Amino acid sequence: MEDTSQVDRSSSLDLFNSLQTRADVLVQEVRSYQAHINQQKREYEVGSRTFVRDTEAEVSSLKKLNPSTTPSDVAAPQNVDRNVEEEEGPRLTTLRSSNLPFFFLVRGVAKKCRRVTAIRVKIGWKEPKNTIGQNAHHQMSMTQENEPASLQKRSVFVDVVAEGGLEWIKVSTLNEKRLLFEMAKEGWEKYSGSDDGTATDSEDDDLQERDPGAGKLELVRLAENLARAAKATRVRFRHPHIKFVLPNIREGVLKDIDSFIAEIRSTGAVVVCGKDVDQFLADGRLDLDRMMPVTADASLTSTINVDETILLALISDICHLSPQQLCSIPTRGPRGAPKTHYKSIANQIAEEQEAPMLRDELYPLLTGRDLDCTAIAAQRFRKIVEKMATSSEQKRAAILLGEGQYKDQPLSVLREAFGEGSLHCVPDSIHFPVRIIQVDIEELLAAGGDPAATNALVCKGFPTSIAARTKDTIRHSTILSSAFLYGWARQVTTLTSNRRMANGLIKDINNVLDTEERQGRGYNADFVGPIIHKCKGARSLIGQDKNNEA
């Protein structure tokens, strides 16, 4: 933010030029960021539209304040005898109140973060009605005990969401002079009391309602709301942590300001202020790759546990053949009937032409890694192949599992056979066949923490109690759940195209964790959850079409 004393001595032209120069850099960086997101096809993983829209609007407003012009919305001087300062007064006041320094700061903070998933985003949560002013921890502990109708939706703005969602950052350009003024306005005794007001920062319009008894400063109330929102949110089974960045507030200079900082920290937030912000923002180079959300490779282990959806995609003719070849596949339907597919299959064929799943997703994920599959999932896979697969899909299935004529064949033979007739080359470092793991889920969950009980399939720290309770809530087939529970117990990445099952499992685990937390048995950073990578698409077997009903 511009130094106040310098701004006071600057003419409107000086201030405008300073803002315009920085705005040009801001716009250029925002456009580069958006272009990189689009190039990486991460549009749906990064929420930055609000920031881009607000930035463009603010820059557009700045252009209207160019002292070289006389825009209609800026009062022109009526008295030529006024001194220069009076003539520039309205324009200078508007320039000084520009929100651009705030956007500069948000952008500077975002550039220093890793795995940014959102810039300027509204976070929502639910809490019981008529509890404004209650202790945040008590309030959230009551949430699950209320009927849905008794919950109210609340929301708060977060300026930067980083670390894949686990870090929420709030920035403010509030300076010490303004802070002391607000302290005096609120009344320090009232502010420093025990009243737990819950209204949010009015500058951000985070909540529509205000706490009628609020006696705390806006940023303190915002910190409390962020803490409550984080407590109601789980990202990879953990609650996000909160950071405040306050470049114009110094610590260790004024006692009252130190008390204000301590009040924010009492909510559990980290506060970075004064010179520490300068150090934090130093070397503000734009590293677009660092800012991107976590890549697929970051969540992969040296061994990949594949479920039946991945096995099916690996052998599907949709992934290996051209549309013309697919149309020529023999069918057992009525003689002379046109080759037709279900709409879902037709959609997959169209998707494959846009983004080949083997080339763009599966092969890069699997290359150089050992491949596991539970015996239950493999058996289900075999049944589907037997019923629906074409001859080429059946051949690939045998290669993939190392069965039939491909049993005990060397890796080079399996790779060559798998790639025969395929549009895509099989990577040299792909590890065939898939290793089939015999595992008893009940025995796995009963193992406690003793790896020897299950042939060392259970990793250290595997929460058997949480896993068992989660399994009891899973409303899906044992076949599907076995793959996820095995991967969880062994702490290897489970690769799946079954997003519904994966999301349901994650939701069930979070619900169990919330129950544990309400009962005083909290898990957070030390919790060992499943490592799941959800593929963007799915591929079915092509063998059964509308002219070939089972």
Automatic annotation (TrEMBL):
Residues 62-87, 190-211 are annotated as: Disordered. PANTHER family: UNCHARACTERIZED DUF1308, UPF0415 PROTEIN C7ORF25. This is DUF1308 domain-containing protein. It comes from Cladophialophora chaetospira.
